[in-house]
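Input set for joint prediction.
Command: fold jointly, output tokens.
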Amino acid sequence: MKPIYLDNNATTRVDPAVVEAMLPFFTEHFGNASSIHAFGSEVGKALKKARSQVQALLGAEHDSEIIFTSCGTESDSTAILSALKAQPERNTVITTNVEHPAILTLCDWLEKEGYIVHKLKVDKKGRIDMDEYRSLLHDRVAIVSAMWANNETGTIFPVVEMAEIAAAKGIMFHTDAVQAVGKIPIDLKNTKIDMLSLSGHKLHAPKGIGVLYLRRGCRFRPLLRGGHQERGRRAGTENSASIVGLGMACELAMQKMEFENTEVRRLRDKLELGLLSQITHCFPTGDISKRLPNTSNIAFEYIEGEAILLLLNKMGIAGSSGSACTSGSLEPSHVMRAMGIPYTAAHGTIRFSLSVYNTEEEIDRVIEAVPPIVAQLRKLSPYWTDKGPAANPEAAFAPTYA
Amino acid sequence: MWEYSDKVREHFFNPRNSGPLEEANGIGDVGSIQCGDALRLMLKVEPETEVILDAHFQTFGCGSAIASSSALTEMVKGMTLDQALEVSNQNIADYLDGLPPEKMHCSVMGREALQAAIANYRGEEWSDDHEEGALICKCFAIDAVMIEDVVKANNLNTVEEVTFYTKAGGGCAACHEGIEEILAKVMAERAGPGEVSPPPACPATPDAPKPPAKKLSIVEKIKKIEEVLESVRPMLQRDHGDVELADVQGKKIYVHLKGACSGCMMEAATLGGIQQKMIEALGELVQVLPSSHMPVEA
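tokens >
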């Protein structure tokens, strides 16, 4: 049976039209865009077109605000380190405790280097407290960095509003929008967002290409110095084939935006409802009223996510989990912990993330496949009896932890 | 996804002896703080002979936790309690044809459940005898607690020394930052108020003779060499390796590396670690070499 891919927040398949657009740039258009000869100028023109395609999807005012990078992580690091370097009198970074490790690990390192990092807490639904946010903004804050949409739950932060509040206090605002770009409409020219990160492989472009949007007039220091590429803001020979691919992917995303927010959303809702109605003791995590149209994250209580994924994989279904075991870290997902989800549920969270390629038939198959898997694992669980969860699960099974 | 052996997969997809065991008379409930996994092991023990007649499990955990639990129940059935107490976590991992380093704690959890269940049968209080910390070195599965203990016990000061003593950091080098953090913490404690920090070049064993010490007789020297080798053997055996003395020629000590140690890519680091200990124990500069380097006799 054809495998079903529901892990599009991890990475996506490159669209065939994107591959087709890229191929000539490995063979006949292999030139270096910096060269004066015809080999180079062909590539230069293609990069210009791609830049305007990205500009259109982001709603940026100028195409020179688009800086091509190698990935979302590079864009994130560039943004935050630039803000600190360009404003040496400011030593504080404000972020949230549900960011992607691309931000959090960098911030942990910055703390060791002597900077001050404030991580905004979230409530049970993954929402931040705007009053707490306002209270933290002062003239030593170099930058605020908040994700547009959460990779695990799809919860959307009010970044447009947050950027306005920061701008009013003269503070730079960056958003890691790798999950949002291509899934929800973005119009940067009508916001106060100074910097935005995107990653090609999350929207059907290849891996290894990213973008940092940098508002005109925003103070900037490059991460990589060397050549004059990207106007000296990101040295290194352009990854021309991937840039062309990303341009094409952005154009396709524009065309499919409506479909994503109607049909993909409908399938996601059908999947979620189909599972919640059949399985007891499970619940969706995050702010389900304000989230990406393609993401559903469900916590199945009293069982563990990796075990669910292994059994799903056997049925040809690909998802992901916030359990500790799938990450090789010590704790279940920091996002689940930040929302106060109990361990016995956080370990059993499964994320289904759809794309425009998923079909109704696939969703029906998943709705059919999951309930027996959950039942099978619950039969093995010490928190579970043949009648349902043990009367008082925490008391019925209280292991000695070592 | 993890690289699980076929045996792990097989035990996960078809777990043996799962579910409650009504006639159980020894029950062990333990969890691993490492990942939140937890296991209930139920034993049915024949009182006269102390033979384990049946064993069941219930596990809240990942694929390898379930597979380790299943393997454990199969292994202990038919054993006496005393035999079962000899089962090590490595035995469980071996039964499953190995576990990924990040997942070794699943086998540790299995051994602990077994000890807890036996203690429960005997009416004893089971207490955990080891502490497991965050995994630092993924190449050799060395955790923070072990590194900290070794750093403290041997007064270590550098990442290189930690690698000599524990192997941690000897592979991909990704954990050097983590090891440095542990070193910084321990060294700060060592230099605590009123304490004088030992000079960085301080020998690892406090009673190591200071060169120039009185010259050792050849018998004394070989005894010391054997002592050092004995002290490192448990560490090597844990990784299915071993070492024994081949010959001593002047300042050159030749050893046979055996089992997994022979041909291991970490051979140089292993020998380096042994050499460091030899120098400390003998109080003179010596070289530790593999027996393959021995001069061919005429």
